[in-house]
Predict the 3D structure of the following.
Amino acid sequence: MVLKKDKDPKLYFSIGEVAAMFGLKESTLRFWEKKFDHIRPRTNAKGMRFYKKEDIEDIRLIHYLVKEEKLTLAGARDRLKNNKDATVRQKEIIRKLKQIKEDLLSLKAAFDDINPNQ
């Protein structure tokens, strides 16, 4: 699930919603909260967690470092501590390149449909 900054009126998301966005277990998010100072959801009197969009963006970056870049939690924490801005830029560049690749493959498929003999 991609959050639209201006189009999504929702301000807070439950731990279940956030876990589903990233295909994680709720326990993983609770564990990451202990390991990363960046993740600090609000809690109500019953202890239920509510994540802001900023929290979700931090989780997205941690998810990228741990699941896609295959860093350990300590490695991801160090990367965020020492070079968060460069990491955010790198992730955005990779996202854009993947989108360009998808667009080019889609164009190629459309072209192949028009000209099947070539």
